[in-house]
Protein 1
Amino acid sequence: MLNEIKKYKLNNNLTESNLKEVGFRPGGWMSSIEEPKLSYTKVLIEDIELHIEVSINNGKVTNFDDYKNIYVIDDNYGQPYTPFYNSNVIFPYLNKVILRYNEEMDKLVSKGILKPIILNGLETQKVKKFIK
């Protein structure tokens, strides 16, 4: 059985300071002067990394979406780890990546940064990202 990928949203009233306390750092892939960002990176397994970007304006979080601002990247190719987003094939490595993703995201829940999204009474839902 393929592990479920949990969905998350930011806790209410987070500040730039709250994010920095848990390891978010200035910058990001799409950061600009008009929309500065903080980013958070963790290795999930081997060359697969979790990247989270959060927009900041005047010290407050202004923009976050667990679809648009969270990336699971294969460092060997510098692109999203495609099976995480659209695999229907069950294989142990992918299940480990999903398990580690959920663990790392749940750590941010325990630190008060994120909270799980509950849909239809369930905390999980498959994520689909279109890879170009």
Protein 2
Amino acid sequence: MRTLRLSLAWLVAFAVLFLAENRSTSGVLVITGDVVDWDPGRSITVANEQTDSRGVRIDVRAADDDGDRDAIRSGARVSVWYQSVGEHFPVAVKVLVLDPR
């Protein structure tokens, strides 16, 4: 009986630590770079010095945008907060135009 309680205590402690770790990291990543391609309301492709020249394509259908959405165009400098949620492409949470160029 004592080993069962001890095992259950370890299991509960492990579960609590695992859940606390998952809550502290929301899974949101940020990329800042230049817009390579913009399909309004559908996707944005952003490239920087850490990506190849084709950049990273991100789905923007559910994204909040800070500022003027019309300022998003090829060559504009943006920051995109995004998550991988099991879709083909990462999904944007927020898009911020830094320099409309």
